[in-house]
Amino acid sequence: MFPDDPAIASLKEQSRLAKHWTNPSWLRRPLTEATAGNRALSAGDPVAATEHYRKAEELGLKSVFAKFNLAMAKCLEGENPANHYDTR
Predict the structure, then answer these.
(1) Which of 27, 54, 49, 51 is nearest to 38 (CA)?
(2) pLDDT greater than 60 at residue 86
(3) How far apart are CA 40 and CA 48, in angstroms?
(4) Contacts of 18 (CB under 8 A, 6+ apart)
(5) Is 79 left (phi over 0), alpha (psi -120 to 50) or beta?
(6) pLDDT digits (tens, 9 = 90+) for 10-54
(7) How far is CA 87 from the centre of its chain?
(8) Within 13 A of 50's CA, how many CA atoms are on the CB side?
(9) Nearby residues of 9 by Cβ (< 8 Å), 6 or more positions away
């Protein structure tokens, strides 16, 4: 991208026309759960992390992210995530 790129002008115009940027509730809820799972994982609590990650997936978190998060929790538990998911 370069300073005179038309995409920059287009984005600036879209931004100017938008009253405000929104993060719809349907997106916030799974992200809130995933973030809570990340915090639990960072605190060394894979059980709580797993609960949050499963809830995030139920609320609409993309499956690929949910599976990756759950695999991290399993690793922290000392399990091999490959035993729980089809890795093909």
Answers:
(1) 49
(2) no
(3) 6
(4) none
(5) beta
(6) 877 777 776 555 556 667 889 999 999 999 999 999 999 999 999
(7) 20
(8) 10
(9) none
Distance CA 85, CA 21 (A): 37
Domains, the chain: 26-88 (1.25.40)
Tokens 């499963």 locate to 54
**Number of residues that this document lists for the chain:** 88
Alpha-carbon distance of 37 to 83, in angstroms, equals 21
Q: Are 54 and 70 in contact (CB under 8 A)?
A: yes
Token pair belonging to 43: 């605190």
pLDDT mean over 42-68:
93
Cα radius of gyration rounded to whole Å, the chain: 18
Structure tokens that stand for 32 in this block: 């809130």
Cα–Cα distance measured from residue 82 to residue 88, given in angstroms and rounded to the nearest whole number: 10
